[in-house]
């Protein structure tokens, strides 16, 4: 890795460092880095547990257990400067152990992780949000023999890479990621790159997985859900236009369980939520940079009492530490699939979105101005 010296129009080689020389350890450092930034592995992953030891009749621990966007479990084994000879055997054992986990067990494992490391939360709801589904009934978690293995190290021995390539030939999604550390003055830089498969091959696999996922989404429960959502949003949007609410006047019905509309603050939409068991009005901080979302959320939360008074009810505020997005919402528990009640649900959505927009309009303008005045994030 090189640093660009623009004043001299030259490259300056950065010094490569070893984990061991810097007293960096697998569990305290590399594992924590990846647990808090799993997309460093090139895709969206939800960390379900770290140091998972829920195996019967053994005290072995797997480094990280994650879920991917297709509901497949991902076993992540971390090494530092050298992969060692036995990492593939170790990971294969762990993968065999987790292959039998049921949906209920996965939710319980994730709930334990949230309670211990994230101050709690609703594991089932967060998995639904991650998978972008309304209910977990719509998906299969840990299907068949779809478990994946990720190996992470600075250097891989031949016996490890040979085994990973053999596993891939037998339709097991095993991958190797090479990590490197570099120093630049007082800073330490971290780089992680896929080496098996190559990025080009990985892109092809992702495209095939997306195609398969699209085919699955057209079947069973999702097909029914899509039809219901289209029907409800048609009713809701007509109700809003008739009531004079202009926020959603250019929005069309959707198969999704939400409809978003701009708030004037980039990356921070108003959302209507339609679920099987409740409907909601929501405001989301979903900018690409998590720190910006948290800053904006904290600033808006300073006016929480004023917002509640204007809205007419207490809102639920979710900072969601450890996640990119933050949000606030007001919910109405109901049987969302009762089509006879759709007109009343639509009227509720229209009225409460009107109130939410009125309550947030002034405070959002204030924090938008303050946000622009912060050079470190604007």
Q: Major beta sheet, specifics? A: 7 strands, mixed
Query: Based on CA inertia axes, which overall geometry fits?
Result: globular
Which regions have little confidence, pLDDT < 50, spanning 5+ residues? none
End-to-end C-alpha gap = 28 Å
Q: Give average pLDDT, whole number.
A: 89
SSE ordering: EEEHEEEHHHEHEEHHEEEHHEEH
- Indicate the proportion of strand residues: 15-25%
Which percent range fits the helix content?
40-55%
Q: Count of DSSP helices?
A: 10
Structural class: alpha+beta
CA radius of gyration: 24 Å
Task: Report the strand count.
Answer: 14
Task: Briefly summarize what is shown.
By secondary structure, the chain is α+β, with helices and mostly antiparallel strands. The protein contains ten helices and 14 strands.
Q: Can you tell me about this structure?
A:
The chain has 10 helices and 14 strands. The two termini are 28 Å apart. By secondary structure, it is α+β, with helices and mostly antiparallel strands. Helix 9 packs antiparallel against helix 10. The mean pLDDT is 89. The strands form 3 sheets. Strands 3, 4, 5, 6, 7, 8 and 9 form a 7-stranded mixed sheet that branches. The protein has a 5-stranded antiparallel sheet with strand order 10-11-12-14-13. Strands 1-2 form a two-stranded antiparallel sheet. The longest helix has 31 residues. A hairpin with a 7-residue loop joins strand 13 and strand 14.
């Amino acid at each position: 890795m090189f640093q660009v010296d623009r004043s001299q129009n030259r490259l300056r080689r950065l010094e490569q460092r070893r984990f061991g020389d810097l007293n960096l350890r697998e569990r305290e450092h590399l594992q924590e880095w990846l647990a808090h930034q799993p997309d460093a592995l090139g895709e969206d992953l939800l960390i379900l547990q770290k140091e998972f030891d829920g195996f019967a009749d053994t005290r072995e621990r797997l480094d990280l257990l994650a879920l991917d966007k297709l509901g497949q479990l991902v076993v992540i084994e971390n090494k530092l400067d050298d992969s060692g000879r036995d990492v593939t055997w170790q990971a294969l054992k762990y993968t065999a152990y987790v292959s039998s986990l049921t949906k209920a067990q996965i939710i319980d494992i994730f709930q334990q992780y949230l309670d211990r490391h994230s101050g709690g939360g609703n594991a089932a709801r967060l998995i639904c949000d991650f998978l972008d589904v309304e209910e977990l009934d719509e998906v299969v978690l840990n299907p068949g023999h779809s478990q994946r293995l990720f190996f992470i190290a600075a250097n891989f021995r031949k016996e490890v890479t040979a085994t990973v390539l053999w596993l891939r030939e037998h339709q097991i999604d095993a991958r190797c990621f090479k990590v490197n550390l570099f120093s630049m003055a007082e800073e330490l830089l971290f780089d992680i790159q896929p080496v098996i498969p190559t990025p080009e091959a990985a892109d092809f696999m992702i495209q095939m997985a997306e195609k398969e996922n699209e085919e699955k989404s057209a079947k069973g429960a999702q097909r029914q859900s899509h039809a219901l959502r289209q029907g409800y949003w048609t009713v809701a949007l007509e109700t809003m236009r008739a009531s004079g609410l202009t926020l959603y006047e250019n929005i069309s019905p959707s198969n999704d369980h939400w409809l978003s509309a701009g708030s004037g603050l980039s990356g921070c939409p108003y959302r209507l939520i339609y679920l099987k068991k409740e409907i909601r009005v929501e405001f989301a901080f979903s900018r690409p940079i998590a720190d910006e979302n948290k800053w904006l959320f904290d600033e808006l939360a300073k006016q929480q009492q004023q917002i509640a008074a204007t809205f007419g009810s207490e809102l639920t505020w979710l900072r969601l530490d450890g996640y990119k997005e933050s949000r606030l919402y007001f919910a109405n528990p109901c049987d969302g699939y009762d089509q006879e009640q759709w007109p009343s649900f639509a009227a509720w959505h229209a009225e409460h979105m009107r109130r939410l927009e009125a309550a947030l309009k002034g405070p959002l303008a204030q924090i938008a101005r303050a946000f622009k005045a912060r050079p470190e994030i604007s």
